[in-house]
């Protein structure tokens, strides 16, 4: 360890408690780190592509998650190794930025590390490898720009968007209804999109799920769905042209903030107190009526008395609605959230064409649909599924599809999927390698080999012979100079991804290559790992 000797040859110690620390240096450190990174990538490799497998993860408290989404798998895996944590971060940042391609980015980083290991064994300095990778990623990045295509769509012609969302959904468990789900995702995004500013606020799309029914029953509601029912069973279940008062104050008698005691020693005093309370409730309900409200949505609870009064004055009400849902209701109906009864006025009410309560199956579950709103900029996707895991997984898949639609609205360039973009980049990087003198040339070639990992994994997962398939497609791309040839995962009979309608967003692919290269550079630059002792 860090031993130093003074002029009399006595050792003195520099690091604290060094006998307890473990330390890896030089090539050993790099190899250990690369092994950790490869191990994580190997886990995700099998869940890439339309024939990819799902992973089942059990959390410490016994919750089971079944998922195909790279970011979710790594989040739930609870890794301990530092380098493996970098891989988790990598897929998380892809998830935050793009929303799709979280598995591919980790597979890509794993392949780069594998190639780097071979170069390090040949005695090439890690920094030179990292620099070569950096050059190669720039070449690949620019090449993607060149092979990408612009994708024209409008609010009337949404077919291109739907096709791209279908590609995303085809690798998920929901791929039997991918057409329907892709259309739902695209319509939801277009409903809240600001096409002039090319911006989409995904917060306005609420994804609700309910166990029961079948996947095909999933629907898009131009309005809000709240998992609540009317506060009194006898209130009307259907209100047309509703004027909605959105309150954040409880229907309860005021409680004094300070510690006061009310002494009641006679029946009369009790009567007056009760009358006082009743008057108070009367005023509350009257204020709501005066403002012209036909439905009250409240964040807090009601007293039974208030509930009873609301029933008598036939003013339907919903209680215990969460804050986020209140905001969405306010956005959708164009109402204001009112904190005090005194501030209620007709212009602060939200308007909705139809509010109805809907019950499901034989269960007692009821939900409130608020539809035909004044401002339909908030929509709800309502998912049904056979069991809880299915609903959760569908939510995650739809999130990916929503993100893809949003990215296409922001930047409508696409590349073709099925590994075709990676193979094309690989060929471009391979040819560019000869132009670089010096050791970097090796690293650039290795980068080209690493790019082949994604199509290889696709072929492997689809049960095709991986190397034969890849070389055939690569030869075809070079011969016809057609960058759209990819791996035919679904056995359609054609390698041309343009005919198969398999698309990916350009920014998603570019982000994958950049992020993977950055992480690999970081891992390669570590040459000394000092870790505390194991207890």
Radius of gyration: 30 Å
The largest β sheet comes out as:
7 strands, mixed
Low-confidence stretches: none
CATH homologous superfamily annotation of the largest domain: GroEL-like equatorial domain
User: How large is the share of residues in beta strands?
Assistant: 15-25%
Per CATH, the class of the largest domain reads Mainly Alpha
CATH architecture of the largest domain: Orthogonal Bundle
Gap between N and C termini: 20 Å
Number of helices: 17
CATH topology of the largest domain: GROEL, domain 1
Short structural description:
The protein has 535 residues and is of the alpha+beta class. 47% of the residues lie in helices and 17% in strands. It folds into 2 domains: 21-150 and 416-532, GroEL-like equatorial domain (GROEL, domain 1, Orthogonal Bundle), CATH 1.10.560; 223-375, 3-Layer(bba) Sandwich (GroEL), CATH 3.50.7.
């Amino acid at each position: 360890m860090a031993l130093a000797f003074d002029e009399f040859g006595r050792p003195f110690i520099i690091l604290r408690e060094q006998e307890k620390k473990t330390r890896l240096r030089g090539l050993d450190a790099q190899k250990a780190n690369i092994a950790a990174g490869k191990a994580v990538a190997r886990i995700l490799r099998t869940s890439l592509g339309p024939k990819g497998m799902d992973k089942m993860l059990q959390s410490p408290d016994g919750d089971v998650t079944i998922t195909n989404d790279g970011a979710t798998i790594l989040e739930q895996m609870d890794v301990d190794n530092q380098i493996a944590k970098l891989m988790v971060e990598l897929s998380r940042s892809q998830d935050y930025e793009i929303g799709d391609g979280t598995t591919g980015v980790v597979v890509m980083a794993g392949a780069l590390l594998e190639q780097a290991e071979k170069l390090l064994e040949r005695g090439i300095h890690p920094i030179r490898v990292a620099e070569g990778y950096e050059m190669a990623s720039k070449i690949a990045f620019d090449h993607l720009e060149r092979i990408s295509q612009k994708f024209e769509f409008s609010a009337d012609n949404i077919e291109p968007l739907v096709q791209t969302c279908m590609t995303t959904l085809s690798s998920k468990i929901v791929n039997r209804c991918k057409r329907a789900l892709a259309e739902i995702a695209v319509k939801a995004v277009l409903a809240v999109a600001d096409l002039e500013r090319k911006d989409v606020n995904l917060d306005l799309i609420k994804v609700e799920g309910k166990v029961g029914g079948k996947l095909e029953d999933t629907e898009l509601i131009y309005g809000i769905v709240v998992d609540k029912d009317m506060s009194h069973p006898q209130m009307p279940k259907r209100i047309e042209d509703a004027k909605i008062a959105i309150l954040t104050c409880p229907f309860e008698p005021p409680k004094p903030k300070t510690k006061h005691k009310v002494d009641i020693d006679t029946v009369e005093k009790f009567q007056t107190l009760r009358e006082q309370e009743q008057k108070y409730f009367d005023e509350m309900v009257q204020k709501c009526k005066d403002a012209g409200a036909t439905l009250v949505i409240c964040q807090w609870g009601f007293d039974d008395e208030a509930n009873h009064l609301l029933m008598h004055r036939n003013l339907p009400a919903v209680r215990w609605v969460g804050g986020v849902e209140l905001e969405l209701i306010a956005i959708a109906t164009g109402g204001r959230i009112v904190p005090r009864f005194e501030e209620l006025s007709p212009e602060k009410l939200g308007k909705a064409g139809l509010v109805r309560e809907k019950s499901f199956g034989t269960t007692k579950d009821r939900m409130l649909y608020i539809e035909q709103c004044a401002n339909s900029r908030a929509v709800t996707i309502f998912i049904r599924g056979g069991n809880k895991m299915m609903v959760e997984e569908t939510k995650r898949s739809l999130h990916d599809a929503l993100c893809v639609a949003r990215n296409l609205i922001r930047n409508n360039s696409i590349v073709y999927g099925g590994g075709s973009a990676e193979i094309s980049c690989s060929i471009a990087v391979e040819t560019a390698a000869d132009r670089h003198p010096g050791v970097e040339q090796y690293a650039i070639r290795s980068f080209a080999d690493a790019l082949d990992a994604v199509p290889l994994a696709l072929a492997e997962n689809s049960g095709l012979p991986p190397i034969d398939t890849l070389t055939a497609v690569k030869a075809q791309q070079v011969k016809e100079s057609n960058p759209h040839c990819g791996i035919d995962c679904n056995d359609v009979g054609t390698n041309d991804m343009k005919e198969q309608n398999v698309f990916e967003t350009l920014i998603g692919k570019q982000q994958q290559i950049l992020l993977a290269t950055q992480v690999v550079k970081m891992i390669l630059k570590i040459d000394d790992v000092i870790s505390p002792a194991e207890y």
